[in-house]
Amino acid sequence: MSQTFPRINRQTTFYILVLFVIVFNATAQFKELKKLQQQRKLITYRFWGDEYKELPRFLKGVHKIGHFTDRDLLKEKIAGVRLAQAQLMLVPTVIDPERTDYEFVLVECTTPHKALAKLKELHLKPVFLNPKIGVLLGKKEK
Amino acid sequence: MFLLPSLISWLTGFLLLEFLLRKSPARIIFSLRLVLAFGLGLGISSYLTFLSFPLFDKLNGPFVIGTHGLTLIALIGLNFSLIKNIPQRLRAFKITAQNILELVFWGALIFLLGQYAKFYPDGGWDAWSVWNLKARFLYLGGHDWVRIFDPTLWRSSPHYPLFLPLLNVWGWIFTKDPTTLAPLWHSILITLLTLGALFYGLKNFVSSRAAWLGTLLLLSPPIFPIFGISQYSDIILGYYLLMIFIVLLLTKEANEKNLLLLGGLFTGFLTFIKPEGAIISLMLIFLSASHWMNQVDPKSLKTYWLRLGTGYLLGILPTVIFTRWYAPANITFINGLTSTTSPADGERLKIIFQFLANELLSGHWHGLWVVLLLGVFLGYKQANPGKNLIIPIFLLGYMLVICSYYWFNTYFEIRWWLNQTLSRLLISLLPTVIWWVFYRMETSVRSS
Hints:
The complex is a heterodimer. Chain A is an alpha/beta fold. Chain A has 3 helices and 5 strands. Chain A has a 5-stranded mixed sheet, sandwiched between helices. Chain B is mainly alpha-helical. Chain B has one domain. The chains are: A alpha/beta, B mainly alpha.
């Protein structure tokens, strides 16, 4: 009897602790799901990559394109997200971020007006424009 | 249609496993066989898909489907007697209350993971900037798939191996469209398989009680299902790591040397999942060798080595081809031991250990690591301490190697780097740690 008691004690202690953590975390899990549900009600899920899905048809056979954004790629998370999701959609074309010396340049600005101005400054002809979000694909004028 | 490739993978794995274990005395419950078979099958599918690239210099869908078909036909031929006995086996199968409870549990899990997946259908940041990006290059790139190695894409770690992207490509061959459905399904499947490996691994070796508690504990903090459906490779690493230890223990308990072939294959798979998988695999091979030196007679040792070595060599073959002919060097590396501009100093080391301690106690783990650490102390007296000693030695050794790498690779600012990667590293170790702690607790000695 004295031999079995300590093992039961250690195991029981551990399993009670485990049960406590499971129950506590189950409520956390429930709260997390509820929080996500509420967030989704306020802000609809948006995959930025969808804004670029029209572009591959203009870039058949193009290996690399340039890229310009008026957002700070290092400081603004959204700039990085947009760049990564644009790259995902443009495969197998490669985007060279923050370089404009290519035949095609993807210009992303906070407003369509700014994007058009930048296009003019870079001497690019618009090939594709998403008027809602200021995304432009420009081609070098010959 | 998106389920069909997984079904083919599972069937391939199942038939190969049954063939390897056809004369085995190993006591492996059927559900654990299913989990092991899935791991084997998914690895084979990823490897057969990879074969298309060195052979045709692009993805060749009919070739991938054809090689799967031929493999299946060969395996059906090898397992003819097993297939003949299926009706008899089905008649012998009994539905118990425990089976029904388990089915309800897995159904509830699919529902829970589905809920999270609904909120993150495209996965986390690394899904679209690394893993799915590589998969799309492989699927859509034709001969230009090698652009994944373009240095311009350094953010996607061009040197990373391709196990998960190839698995997603295998799914897309059937859906004919590189949508998020296949990656999402694979992330749910692999999360379920990780939980399944833990559940049936504990049930097979110790008890149902440990299986339920251990699995619920792993599932309980929201961080696990969220990482699970993120479409990252870390959970796959965790799944195979746990299965390697399960297979090693099965080998030991049943003295079934064919299982070592499987263990070797799984260890080889690790090298194609993530770069740290290569370090893990070398550590595991070294540890297994030292472990057996003392426990196995010299005659058996040779057989042990032959089986494990054959499996491992087969498993690392794609990694060897990938590393030798395709992968660029890791450009995110500065040797802090020799660099004068970014030296590996004491301050960096201090930050690493402080960060690690803070991470283990961090709120997003919801006390998980604390309770596991307590479990290690409470189960300290082992009836046979040498039996699973390989796990704590591996865990300590691996953490030491990882901390050293964080210290001497000074390419990244250390706080940012730890912030981005440490939780993922711990997620991949978590299933093995839980399995080990519960195994220890159930096998602790009766005397005080």
